[in-house]
Amino acid sequence: MTHPQMFDDDDALLAGLRNLALSFPGAQEKVSHGRPVWFTRKTFASYGGHVKGSHGDTSLSRALLFKPDADHRDLLLRDERFVVPAYDGPYGWLALALDTWEPSAEEVRDLLEESFRMTAPPALVRELEA
């Protein structure tokens, strides 16, 4: 089954996230389930999703989904900006709705880097550190 595209190619938020995500060693992009996904061997971030329990609500259509360290995840969940996304939430992922909140580029990069470190092969993490 082919999924419809659920993002706008001209979205400036997406362009900014794309530039940041693709700056990591070995990072690539593909469209999965109609949304942009950034990965090495495993996905480390995606753009857009649904809130757990929303049953199709697109309130996260312009959101960064990422996988933080488990200890950091607990801290982030104390911040109202972060929510548990549907589907990936049970696997430790969180979402930051970019329509509602305007994080700094540094904060977004930090979230992407943490997620990259959680999912990338050790050789790519070492390359990042070099």
CATH architecture: Alpha-Beta Complex
What count of helical segments does DSSP give?
Answer: 4
- Characterize the main sheet: 6 strands, antiparallel
Which strand order do you get reading across the main beta sheet? 1-2-3-4-6-5
Whole-number mean pLDDT: 91
Show unreliable segments.
Answer: none
Coarse morphology: globular
Report helical residue fraction.
25-40%
CATH topology: Aspartate Aminotransferase, domain 1
* Category by helix and strand content: alpha+beta
N-C termini distance: 42 Å
Number of strands: 6
CATH class: Alpha Beta
Tell me the count of domains.
1
Beta strand %: 15-25%
H/E element sequence:
HEEEEHEEHH
Rounded radius of gyration (Å): 14 Å
